[in-house]
Design a protein that fits this description.
The protein is mainly α and 183 residues long. The protein has five helices and two strands, in the order αααββαα. The radius of gyration is 39 Å and the shape is rod-shaped.
């Protein structure tokens, strides 16, 4: 049999890793982190190369005279965000703030989830202890009924004592305070 403290050692982390609210908050942080990187990259100049191939002929019949009718070109493009510097800086700062908000939201989600998992585990442990006590009580009451029956069969007690033992057993098992497991 596994000791109870060994059973719950790795369980909270597993429960937390499967929670959809934490997954959503985590992916939101990752998403906003990438948007911050894109906003930062937009502040730097960009270079692009674009190849072009075309046909240099006025007549359709000479379009396929290779290589004379084919023209080739490679163009380089350099775009610098000179006039948008303030706008790009504002977009970057906004992305940073959104990322920080998402990180704080993620931390709060984790703390809430840890509290909920801890509460659920404490309730589970309390419920299992309560169930164990109820089983012990039931075993003791069943033994009392058996003892009363043995005494009745041996002639040392009346059947009223057997009925009394069964009534006590019924009242103790179905006692309203023992039925619901309180939240």
């Amino acid at each position: 049999m596994i000791p109870e403290n060994k059973l719950f050692e790795g369980l909270p982390a597993q429960l937390l890793s499967r929670r959809p609210d934490l997954k959503m908050a985590e992916f939101n942080v990752i998403n906003l982190n990438s948007k911050t990187g894109l906003a930062k990259a937009a502040m730097y100049p960009s270079i692009s190369l674009s190849p072009q191939i075309g046909v240099n002929s006025n007549k359709f019949s000479s379009w396929f005279d290779i290589p004379g009718s084919i023209t080739k070109a490679i163009a380089a493009n350099l775009a610098a965000p000179v006039f948008q510097k303030k706008e790009l800086k504002t977009a970057y700062e906004t992305a940073l703030i959104e990322q920080e908000k998402a990180a704080i939201n993620f931390k709060q989600s984790v703390m809430t989830a840890v509290a909920e998992v801890s509460d659920a585990m404490a309730k589970s442990k309390g419920s299992s202890e309560r169930l164990q006590l109820l089983e012990q009580r039931t075993a003791i009451l069943d033994k009392g009924i058996n003892d009363a029956l043995k005494l009745y069969k041996s002639g040392m007690a009346t059947y009223l004592e057997v009925i009394t033992a069964r009534t006590i057993n019924f009242r103790m098992i179905w006692k309203p305070s023992m039925l619901p497991l309180k939240n």
